[in-house]
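User: What would this chain look like folded?
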Amino acid sequence: MSADYILEATGLTKQFRGFYAVKDVDLRVRRHSIHALIGPNGAGKTTCFNLLTTFLPASAGTITFNGRRIERSDPATVARRGLVRSFQISAVFGHMTVLENVRVALQRKTRWSHTFWRSERVLQDLERKARDLVASVGLSPWEHTLAGELSYGRKRALELVTTVALEPELILLDEPMAGLGHEDIEPAMQLIKEAAKGRTVLMVEHNMKVIAHLCDHVTVLQSGSVLAEGSYEQVATDPRVQVAYMGGDGGH
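Assistant: Here's the prediction, encoded as structure tokens.
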């Protein structure tokens, strides 16, 4: 595996009782890039994410992260090594406030994460960082609101910011813009841009304008297999992609 690539899957396959959800997928994610995985509904994008993060065991194929094979690892081990994902369904602690959710994520990156006593200075530093991150997605007015009481779009924004707070080397984002209001899209895009500085992002996203503005490379799946890949301009003008993903109008 080239040092230029942080993640590489070869011949990745997932079979369910004779049905191939993902079949012979080869995927290479360049280090310090934003890479999109797109395709029509049922193309296998989320299954692919589940395989890459070992939430699902692969039927065949290999996955290499930072030069180390991980396809037989468990999700917790993979996350500790620096590969962290978000989910289509919001995954936040509903009984904790917005600020507390972010602070817990920040604590995971400190050597105090498993101790009960922390100095006031450490707590203040975490509080300051948490407030900055909350502000970056426009959630400051709700920092003391229980996460379970937030609207769906604000929960997604909180999930995004808590994923960033974990400071992984590779962030997998599963439809980060889903459920966000129009006014929330730009701040979320800016956060992903900031998150990508010094690290790598692999994202599933349906908003083609977001992909056009954010992503360096795009892989298109159809029926569980790779249909095309390249820059946004290359895949957007590919007739096969226009038929399969954009309805043939090429209007995105």
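The first strand starts at residue 5 and ends at 16. If you want, I can go into more detail on any region.
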